[in-house]
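[User] Once you have settled down, look closely at the record that follows, and write a paragraph about the fold.
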Amino acid sequence: MTAVTLNEQLFRLPDLGEGLTEAEIVEWKVSVGDTVTIDQVVVEVETAKAAVEVPVPYAGTVLRLHAEAGTALAVGAALITVGPAAPAPGESAAERHREEERAGSGNVLIGYGTGHDPAPRRRRRRTGSTANSAPVTRPAPPIEPHAPRVISPLVRKLARDHGIDVTALVPSGPAGVVLRRDVEQAVARNAVTPVPSPEGPTRIPLRGVRRAVADKLSRSRTEIPDATTWVDVDATGLLQAKKALEAAEPGRRVGLLALLARICVAGLRRHPELNSAVDTERREILRYDEVHLGFAAQTDRGLVVPVVRDAHRLTTVRLAQELARLTELARTGDLPPDRLTGGTFTLNNYGVFGVDGSTPIINHPEAALLGVGRIVDKPWVVDGELTVRKVTQLSLSFDHRVCDGGTAGGFLRFVADCVERPAILLADV
């Protein structure tokens, strides 16, 4: 236990707030023999959260520094001892006593001073020692009601940043100390503003298709650790291929969705990891040989995902016919229930809504979904020359449990290459 002699003031490491219990001394700003004034910064300490400059609440001569730089001290440990300043030449002890009374007792709130301008700092060497004096513990001065003696610099800064007058707060800490929670409660009281509650909301029952979609998407977000990767592609070649197919047989319509479906089927043959599902109960990956291709269709009853069974067995023309047939059944509400389940991969052409890109949610329990944005004219570099091309964005959301980014990127790159150069598909015919 550190004791002080009569007329000495022992200042201990104060509570620095934030629930911190110790601090390390970084640098002393004063030395033994220096004269300090009330609220003069005497040491810089570092806590687990910040560096803090600590002022001393006493004026006088530095008698002892109780720890060296680099030492870790607990809150409440002895920090610095300050004694009465040596009288100036020709100054009597009585005059010095009156000067100290005018300067203040030192029992003040750190950082607020006593109301007097601080005296200039002077460096004086000690002319004597009190080491042999009988140790006497100084009694703590009386505490005025609701007047804190010492406050953490961090708490003081928090109050200043939020415009809080700490002298108006009722301290909750021991010995009348204002704590961080006192300031935070004041900040919360100032921030409270009445927010009117909305009156008379329209309640819409979540049922039917909308409820089924909501349940499936919620389950997808809950169970599947999904990731999304995307790429911009030049779709000029794909549009040219579409025109060529339709021109070969007048009256036959092959939409872009059919071409994209054909490309996806070919991509899944190269990267079967994405034609999968995860059995969470048995902790197994189910990899399918058949490609049952789902595609998003917007109807008056909401979004539905019809499924083209055995899409890998169909030609591009047959894919186009099946997509058109299922889309019409979905719009009229005549789609059989077995055509809304059992998909292994989904294609979503949200470009029809005029948007460029998205991070689509995987259709549970599948492992991947390809999204296609709108096709627009954009500047593009072809063979080193800047030109205008038909550009779209492809987004692939995939279940990171079934494959890594390399596999997903490989699939997406294959799809992008086929969109830009449809002749690549001939290799799989």
In short: The first strand starts at residue 9 and ends at 12. The radius of gyration is 39 Å. The CA atoms of residues 208 and 273 lie 33 Å apart. The helical segments are 93-103, 153-161, 180-191, 208-223, 236-248, 256-270, 316-332, 405-420.
